[in-house]
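Take a look at the protein record below and flag anything odd:
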Amino acid sequence: MFYYSYRPDIEKLNIIIDGMHYFVNKADTLGDSFDKLYSLCKEYHVNKNDTTRLMIHQLVTYGSEIKDINGFEFVNYKLRLDKTPVPVPKALVAKLMEVDNTEELESLRLFWENSLLNPIEKARNDFFTYTQTFMSPITRNGYVIMYKAVKRVSEQTSLLPESYIDEMIAKYNELAVLPTFANKSKEWIYENFIKQSGYMVVEDSDDSMWNILSDEELENLDEDEVTEIDDNATVYDLSNFTMDQVLPVKLNYSYTPKHNGNYGMEINLGEPVTTTIDNVDQNEKNECSFGLHVGSYEYVKHFANSRDVILMCLVNPKNVVAIPRYDTSKIRVCEYIPIAEIDREDDGSWRQLESDFSEETYLNYEKKELAKVYESMIDDEFYQKEKTLYSLPNEEYIRDILKKRLL
């Protein structure tokens, strides 16, 4: 059955097609989509064909004609990924329609593929709108870049060869302020410092920074007096070591959240912070509640004080639990991974510090975890027992998504 009526005085359309009842107000549409819809209704009334019928559904639902996108199909009047039962949210559809870049389209596809693993419908459907509202970037693997304000717990760890350290420990005073090696890779340290000078010094101060001696300071070192120097520093001669022999020389920082809680209190770069979904408040009406928290740039820049450390984190859409209705710039999740520290410049800009960790760190971790879930889903009885732990709905399409993610 097809029926339509149009009132030009109030510019509204009433359309009944394929059992669907649509009421369209021109004031609520964008561009010329309303006029196109009216023309299509007149055309379909005279010549009923599938192409026009689908275009009517698309214009009513999304305000535009749906272009062909790899992996997406217009099924049962909604855009879906690989015929999965969950329709793509309107905000994401609109973004897919405007993007022409193949790489960006793929990242959006992976974002929604990750989202389909989220059992919480409200969080699953609203998270993309959140990323657009607060300009949170979506990575090439469909993760979202978020931030977290924390407090640093500095733990100095010696990663040099122990036998050599025992022989070469020396003391030296009057250290100048020198470059830090925090979060630098072994290759970077070797090429930029060890290979050039052969010496490294560790300052045992409140800041606990790794430093290197200047040429002048090296020349002033007196081997006969080296054991008589102040206890505030340790000097290592690495001139005879190759890069393979020099272990990563850097500080290992750990962090803790600004607020106390029952979980997620120990934070380390490159290590996912996780809890079960039951430990996170799903009620979006509660602004401040229990769970793991991350936020947008807008939230963290106001929440963090000058003494706090800001961490760049990655969030998989499948782990988003609640987006508070009123304080919407922060979210509650059951997992995130911190991958780098952020340095706040005097002009207000943020700069990511060099880190050994990246999106690949999280991707490799997730593949191992998803493999466990996929294996468990082969055995339905086992999966039912473990479903709460993994926080996934028991749907056939979930198996297909997991299989693709693991390939």
Q: What stands out?
A: The first helix runs from residue 33 to 46.
